[in-house]
Write a structure and sequence with these properties.
By secondary structure, the protein is of the alpha+beta class. It is built from 5 helices and 3 strands. A hairpin with a 2-residue loop joins strand 1 and strand 2.
Length: 159
């Protein structure tokens, strides 16, 4: 490599790497030739926060509720809307339960919320086309985990 080529490479390296401002004329000529290396850094990018957009936001989740009687006692039939069957957005379980309570205050009996949440989480997955979710106030209030263990029907199977 000719001396002028070396000086040009050294100057380019200094510019690219941001190294000092030494005058090229002051730099001694090396006795061996090496290829200068440069390190390039790619600026770090920060991914934008991910947001989940609920395509069903603002739509009703419960169409209507209706009371019936069966051999065991009263039963509240809860009919979800298509949005209520499909949404997976966080917090919609509580919004839907509030809709049920607004449609009929008698839904707020002990154990009914756990039955509803069990249907919201599990029945939508296992039987997504089931016309209604049946909540019975006569069933024992055993807590959510025991309600799930009983296939949403604590105290006996649905008849």
């Amino acid at each position: 490599m000719a001396r002028w080529q070396f000086r040009l490479a050294l100057a380019a390296t200094a510019v690219l790497t941001g190294c000092g401002s030494a005058d090229i004329a002051d730099v001694a000529t090396p006795t061996t030739t090496t290829t200068p290396t440069t390190t390039r850094r790619v600026p770090a990018t920060i991914a934008p926060p991910t947001t989940t957009v609920d395509p069903y936001a603002g739509l009703p989740l419960i169409d209507h509720v209706s009371w019936t009687e069966n051999i065991d006692g009263p039963r509240l039939l809860v009919f979800p809307t298509p949005a209520g069957r499909k949404t997976a957005a966080p917090g919609t379980d509580e919004l839907a339960w509030q809709e049920v309570r607004a449609l009929d205050g008698g839904a707020d009996a002990p154990g009914m919320r756990d039955q509803f949440l069990c249907h919201w989480v599990w029945a939508r997955m296992v039987a997504p086309d089931k016309p209604s979710w049946n909540l019975e106030p006569w069933r024992p209030d055993v807590g959510y985990q025991a309600t799930v263990s009983a296939n949403c029907n604590p105290g006996g199977p649905e008849r």
